[in-house]
Amino acid sequence: MKFRAIILYTLRESLAKKTFMGFFVITTIVHLLFIFALNVDIVSGGQAAISLFGKDMPEALEMEKLMQGFKIMMSALAVLMLTGGIFLAIFATGSLVPNMLEKGSVDLILSRPIPRWQLLLGRYIGAVGLVAINVAYMTVGVWLIISLKIGLWHWPFLLSGVIIVIAFASLYAIMTFVGVTVRNSGVSMMAAWFVMFFSPLLLERDKIYALLSKKVYQWLLDGIYYIVPRTAELGKMTGEMVAGKPIVDWSPLVQSLLVGASFLAAAAFIFHKKDF
Amino acid sequence: MNIVEVHNAVKHFNRGRIRALNDVSLAVPKGSAFGLLGPNGAGKTTLVKMLLGILYPTSGSATLFGQSISQPTVRDKVGYLPENHRYPDFLKGNEVLDYYGQFSAVPKESRQKRAPELLKLVGMEKWGTTKIKKYSKGMMQRLGLAVALMNDPELLFLDEPTDGVDPIGRKEIRDFIQQLKTQGKTIFINSHLLSEVELVCDSVAIMNKGKLVVQGRVDQLTASGHSYRVQTGTISPDVLITLKSKFANLEASNSHLQVTVQDYAELNSLIDQLRKHQIELQAVLPHRRTLEESFFAAIQGAASGDFNEMNIPADKL
């Protein structure tokens, strides 16, 4: 009951925040854009006309080519949603853990008969849960609009929502860790954005090696690569998944989950030991 | 039975540079109202936070209800009103009560029953459906008191309970604490307001610089030995000189004498002298110090290193 209460309280707090409303409004605007801007007519298996934002596409395509193009479009859209969705989710949830630890609030919550690890886990699950709801609204909404307008039901697109939530969950574990350690929402958000935007560089680190003066920097880059969630590769994986390509390497997903779990465990340990 | 026991608690911050608690031991018996006093930075809040699991002792131990404070379940029947508390301002009064009730595993039926009852008890029955960001400081304090009582606690920690409350509200809170005492609840009050503590507490402890300098029952701490105020009719200067020559610790004021005697025999001797000189005897009252006087005596005594005389063993409280 107490654990459930922490989760519900986190959801309630998140809903009261304007940042989450902002996330919801932006998602709704994206939906509206797709409703009004995308216009496709399919006649006898071929494309009669397609327009986006009122501009006609140059030529009609065969169904096979159309499908291929459609998958590429959906794949690009999924990657875009992953990047944009996580960016907004970090912004919306950044203050949840530091807020709980603020003077005046932390005393009230820690004096309750709840183990500290449950407090933190409840907070984490509440935040990830609400992001999952928002991401589901975004993904399913876009998928429904496109499917209804084009008449093609591309189910793999829905998997992008799952990957977005997993990627966010691993980043939010880092945010929770930083939040518990420094009790500052700005630093907590910066840590997540840093990992997110540094990730593509780490993916291409073999091209950077040549620029490095010492071998130790190469080891450092390798080290960082293996201790942070691989969000860039998760984006790539999402694109391939939605495009219908087989996934040969699941390690980005596994590593991101493991890194997330490790950061969360470390955050719980520090929270358990810390004086407030 | 002691509800709260602290044994040789030590708390250091900044790797020992700040010694917030220095070998503190105390006990609070069941059903009593206990006041913890001390100047700012004495370590009072640190001690309460330690008892509530908000921070950990560097060494020493403590129990609530006979169980170690390291177990979260020990706080099942504990209520807490912290100083400068901050409830989430997006919630309404009754929502705050409901959430904090859930955090203490209060069943839904009890929460629905107790929330309006408690709001009424603290004089906030009309404000339950208003967002707390519209509350004044005094209202927040009343709400905090209601939240602290939501789980029907057997032990209540109140840190500056009348802070920000107007005089009428203070009186109401004092009456309310008395009412809780009659229900058999144990109350642990941290306060700077000595007069208020004196009015509601049975026993007190005074802390200074992380040390417990005095602890005992309020009547013991405010007693001044064999010091009496003797109210009389007019005393002529000659008689007064005679009395002063026989009683060294005698001071005269407008209509009374203040005297400290060795024993009752000496007091009776003074009364005999007054009767002998045909001075009207109106009243003989044992003189009591205020808690404030005891507080300053303890703090000054602690500074000079002489502060153990008033310590009363925990089992005698």
Structural features, described:
The complex is a heterodimer of chains A (276) and B (317). With 276 residues, chain A is mainly alpha-helical. Chain A has one domain (2-273). Chain A has twelve helices and three strands; from the N terminus they run ααβββαααααααααα. Chain A is globular. By secondary structure, chain B is an alpha/beta fold. In chain B, 35% of the residues lie in helices and 28% in strands. Chain B is built from ten helices and 14 strands. Chain B has helices at 44-51, 93-103, 108-121, 137-148, 167-182, 194-200, 218-222, 237-246, 264-276, 291-304; strands at residues 2-13, 18-29, 33-37, 59-64, 67-68, 78-81, 155-159, 186-190, 203-208, 211-217, 223-232, 250-252, 256-260, 281-288. In chain B, the strands form three sheets. A six-stranded mixed sheet of chain B has the order 6-7-8-3-9-10, with helices on both faces. In chain B, strands 2-1-4-5 form a four-stranded antiparallel sheet, covered by helices on one side. In chain B, strands 12-13-11-14 form a four-stranded antiparallel sheet. In chain B, a hairpin with a 3-residue loop joins strand 12 and strand 13. In chain B, helix 2 (93-103) packs across helix 3 (108-121) and helix 3 (108-121) crosses helix 4 (137-148). The radius of gyration of chain B is 24 Å and the shape is elongated. Chain A binds chain B through residues 1-2, 4-6, 8-9, 12-13, 16, 102-116, 273, 275-276, and chain B through 13, 49, 52-56, 72-76, 78, 80, 82, 84-88, 90-91, 99-100, 102-105, 147, 157.
Distinctive features:
heterodimer; A: 276 residues; mainly alpha; three-stranded antiparallel β-sheet; 75% helix; B: 317 residues; alpha/beta; six-stranded mixed β-sheet; four-stranded antiparallel β-sheet; 14 strands; elongated; disordered C terminus
